[in-house]
Write a structure and sequence with these properties.
Number of helices of chain B: 5
Mean pLDDT of chain A: 96
Strand order of the largest sheet of chain A: 3-2-1-4-5-6-7
Number of domains of chain A: 1
CATH architecture of chain B: Orthogonal Bundle
Largest sheet of chain B: none
Mean pLDDT of chain B: 90
Order of helices and strands of chain B: HHHHH
Number of strands of chain B: 0
Number of helices of chain A: 6
CATH architecture of chain A: 3-Layer(aba) Sandwich
CATH class of chain A: Alpha Beta
Radius of gyration of chain A: 17 Å
Helix content of chain B: 55-70%
CATH topology of chain B: Non-ribosomal Peptide Synthetase Peptidyl Carrier Protein, Chain A
Shape of chain B: globular
Oligomer: heterodimer
Number of strands of chain A: 7
Structural class of chain B: mainly alpha
CATH topology of chain A: Rossmann fold
Strand content of chain A: 15-25%
Largest sheet of chain A: 7 strands, parallel
Chain lengths: 244, 84
């Protein structure tokens, strides 16, 4: 297993895509902070699975939408593993779908805060230590909804599209410090977030099936690896061809 | 008693600036950041180093005023004294 000079933080890592990313990064040798908001048992299950496979992980409760969270969360993680955070995966996200004419202010602002502003604040906290280390990997989990309109998701799409331009802009600012910032744009992935969505929509997916959290995690593992050192400001779609 | 000496700050600032690319021999108090090819991203990193070492918090507006290496050193020393 590769020895890492720093640790990784995955937000929203107790379930679904985030849990698969946390497990994948641990397999790649990263000590991983498994952030969760509510489901402590699920986060501890992810940590236990990582430890069973010989990796290192710690469950960290925090609501990323709270502006005080980045400082507090990074502090706990850095002291736990006694190393800087050199990989950040902004995965925590929520959706509050409704058609635009009836979308409420609360549904709008909650999604923007959690899916966009929280990622900005975590990136801001992560960057200077990465710059000083002359290495760092940030991956933002966007969505195919940022690339292709999906009725009922104007808040989510706006947040994720914002996340993509945040990714690109910050990426070019810090590129010469060896820090890369990229996004993945998952399409239909089998998780709790897509439960209850009509299976008819699968006919729009060229691959004719939903993706798995592990298929998204594989892309994040690449983007956090040494092999991806010249990839920055990129958006990697993981969508079975949906946005092609 | 001053919190930090001018010489301490000068040697730390020059060491930090050298890590951004310029030859240490070219860095003097009178060098401008422009001459040294030190840009705004470098100054953000310098501000963090100064905060970690001397507890002096420099914001973007503080850094924008700085033209020379000497300006940066004097600002850090004066802020450190003010907080001591």
């Amino acid at each position: 297993m590769t020895e890492r000079a720093g640790c990784a933080l995955v937000t929203g890592a107790s379930r679904g895509i985030g849990a698969a990313i946390a497990r994948g990064l641990a397999t790649d040798g990263w000590p991983v902070g498994v952030n969760y908001r509510r489901d402590r048992d699920a986060a501890e299950t992810v940590v236990a699975a990582i430890e069973r496979d010989g990796g290192r992980a710690v469950a960290l409760e925090a609501d990323v939408a709270d502006p005080a969270t980045p400082e507090e969360l990074f502090g706990r993680l850095e002291s736990h593993f006694d190393s800087p955070v050199l990989a950040l995966v902004n995965n925590a996200g929520i959706n509050r779908d409704d058609l635009t004419p009836s979308l409420g202010d609360e549904e709008w602002s909650t999604v923007i805060e959690t899916d966009l502003s929280a990622a900005f604040r975590l990136i801001r906290r992560a960057l200077v230590p990465m710059m000083r280390a002359r290495t760092g990997r940030i991956v933002n989990v966007a969505s195919v909804s940022a690339l292709r309109a999906n009725p009922g998701q104007s808040n989510y799409a706006a947040a994720k599209a914002g996340l993509i331009m945040l990714t690109k802009t910050a990426a070019v600012e810090v590129a010469r410090r060896g820090v890369t910032i990229n996004a993945v744009a998952p399409g239909w992935i089998d998780t709790e977030m897509t439960e209850g969505v009509s299976k008819d929509l699968l006919s729009a997916v060229p691959a004719r099936r939903a993706g798995t959290p592990e298929e998204v995690a594989a892309c994040v593992r690449f983007l956090t690896s040494d092999d991806a050192s010249y990839v920055t400001g990129a958006v990697l779609t993981v969508d079975g061809g949906l946005a092609a | 008693m001053p919190a930090v000496t001018n010489q301490q700050v000068e040697s730390r600032v020059i060491e930090a600036l050298a890590s951004f690319g310029p030859d240490p021999d070219e860095i003097t108090r009178d060098s401008t950041f422009e001459e040294l090819d030190i840009d705004s991203l470098d100054l953000v990193e310098l501000a963090q180093i100064v905060e970690d070492e001397y507890g002096v918090v420099l914001k973007g507006d503080d850094m924008k005023e700085l033209q020379t290496v000497g300006d940066a050193i004097d600002l850090v020393v004066s802020r450190a004294d003010a907080e001591a």
